[in-house]
Amino acid sequence: MRAVHPELIEELAALLEAEGERELAICVWDVRLVGACGCGDDFCQSIRTAEHPQGQPYGPGHRCVPLPPSSGDLILDVVNGRIVYIEILGRPPLPRRAQPEQGSPGAGQQVDLPV
Fold first, then answer.
1. Residue 56 maps to a domain
2. Other Cβ atoms closer than 10 A to 78
């Protein structure tokens, strides 16, 4: 996910460090982009970082980690120390970096795409 949303990952890592969540601050650099929330709400840009059946509770080992961003809401769902969902609400649209094919020109150019 850091290749697609590096600014978000940097912000999450800094916020997690500030909240004393050192292990999660390290883990956030390696979360996968599994998919968008899919709720369709215009204020939601939440990201699934692990497969999970929709509408099912996470079960034992789950905890929520609310973070204090400068705008909107960032809340992580964590199961057994693994970030499985990043709730992103009420924030400006996330810039998304294109993932260019290896050797293609323009690698690393930033483009705005839906999550």
1. yes
2. 19
CA 72/CA 42 separation, integer angstroms? 13
Tokens coding 104: 């293609």
> For residue 53, what pLDDT is reported?
87
DSSP annotation string for 43-72 = TB--EE-S---TT----TTEEEEEE--SSS
Confidence of residue 34 (pLDDT cuts 50, 70, 90): very high
Residue 36 lies in a domain: yes
Residue 51 lies in a domain: yes
Could you give the number of structural domains in the chain?
1
Task: Quote the CA–CA distance of 74 and 92 in Å, as a whole number.
Answer: 12
pLDDT at 35 over 90: yes
